[in-house]
Amino acid sequence: MTKFKYPLFLLVLSVFITTSTLSLHAQRLDAGIDSLISRDFNDPNGPGGVFMVSRKGKPVYQKAIGKANLELGDNLSPENVFELGSMTKQFTAVAVLMLEQEGKLKVEDPISKYISDYPNGEKITIHHLLTHTSGIKDFTKMKALSDIAQKEMTPKMMVDFFKNEPADFAPGEKFEYNNSGYVLLGYLIEIVSGERYEDFIKKHIFDKAGMGRSLYASDRKVIDKRAYGYHKKESGYVNKTIISFSVPFSSGSLMSTTGDMLKWQNALNRNLLLDAKEINKAFSTYKLNNGVEYAYGYGWHIRDVEGTPTREHGGSIFGFKTMAVYIPSEDIYIIGLSNCDCNSPTKLVGDIATFVLRGIKEKHW
Are 325 and 312 in contact (CB under 8 A)? Predict the structure, then answer.
């Protein structure tokens, strides 16, 4: 019996050391990210942000700082629902690829195939819309935008609002970030599927991915644990400017939580929504007419953090700013959601990604 005691002791010691090491690494991770967040988000009594880092599909760090509602004094938590702004474009792009996978359209199709009277529509393809290379005037840069900002617009009304504006350049000539292209994509989704955009996204993406806290934005609906949006003026914080979500539409009108956005990332990784061939189109880079490559796929910027490839996108809409970075090689997803457009999480999320990657390389976790 005596001879088994020493190996058993070594086993127990090994488990203890391993557990202690993992605990130390976790503490180092938490402390490092806490320090970065407190640099940029340091007002517990103002609007703030919610942050999450996940690895291999599971959260390894979560933090909420600030208030979800200044009038009621409610603290932010990971359960709060935020407006995503342009992170909506990921969902629109994947919806288009889902329709392609079903054989209902091709990204090479000219938009004139679906909207016969669209100016120069025979030369502008769905691919151009997805990659911000269409040359169509961005409606957010039009002076007349204030005339419709609070009106209830149909997708066709939105398309008609900008379609006769002079083009900024010929299709495929330049990459220039463009919200109009993604509004057009939402309209095409409705034409091809026969469903409203918000219904299509809910049924075919949110429900399939188990994203029960995600929805098309509304200021009228009662939304459990809604984070309210704010601006910061010289006099202090004020409630966000009210707009009609039918204006940004499929370019920026979805809402979600950090937890649901992780479900979204996991669904993409598991090919739950698209097969590998289709989803890879979203994460590829493409070339302009002159052969110059640009770092944008379908709904994602294709970038890197210190040489490690990433897929990224942020968002900005009245009262909110958002940012997410995914690192495929490590299956790490980092997201920050802010409920004041005075606090952008873009640089912070990038800094967290750098910190985490360096920790992995140095075997800190």
Answer: yes
| Helix boundaries (H) for 41-144 | 88-101, 126-130
Q: Is 136 left (phi over 0), alpha (psi -120 to 50) or beta?
A: beta
Cβ–Cβ < 8 Å for 183, 236: no
Contact 325, 304 (CB under 8 A): no
Of 110, 142, 116, the closest CA to residue 128 belongs to 110
pLDDT surpassing 90 at residue 274: yes
Query: Does residue 27 register a pLDDT over 50?
Result: yes
CA distance linking residue 174 with residue 133, whole number of Å: 6
**The domain defined by 82-252+286-296 carries CATH number 3.40.710.10:** yes
- Taking only the tens place, the pLDDT of each residue in 173-231 is 999 999 999 999 999 999 999 999 999 999 999 999 999 999 999 999 999 999 999 99
- The Cα 176–Cα 290 span in angstroms is 15
- 254: number of CA atoms within 13 Å, CB side? 31
User: 234: helix, coil or strand?
Assistant: coil
d(CA 264, CA 282): 14
Please tell me the total number of residues recorded for the chain in this structure. 365
| C-alpha torsion 169→175→179→185, nearest 10 | 90
Burial (CB count within 10 angstroms: exposed 0-12, middle 13-18, buried 19+), residue 85? buried
135-163 in b/e burial notation, b at 16+ Cβ within 10 A? bbbbbeeeeeeeebeeeebebeebbebbb
Residue whose structure tokens are 């034409």: 191
Q: pTM, whole model, 2 decimals?
A: 0.92
pLDDT of 37 strictly over 50: yes
